[in-house]
Amino acid sequence: MFFEEQRKELPVDFYYLKFLFFLFLFTYFCLFVNTKV
Asked: Rounded to an integer, what distance in angstroms lies between the CA atom of residue 27 and that of residue 35?
């Protein structure tokens, strides 16, 4: 039962982590551009 619930919540966590990862890249890119200009 525990593993079944974990498997159900896994996709949501995966997309959430992916979202955070892209957000981090976006902010890093913005900072890089701001420091370069």
From this structure: 12
Token pair, residue 4, equals 């079944």
In a domain, 12, yes or no: yes
Buried b (16+ CB within 10 A) or exposed e, 4-15: eeeeeeeeeeee
In a domain, 16, yes or no: yes
* Alpha helices, DSSP H, located in the chain: 2-36
**Tens digit of each residue's pLDDT (9 = 90 or more) over 1-37:** 555 665 666 677 888 899 999 999 999 999 999 987 7
Integer Cα distance of 3 and 10 in angstroms? 10
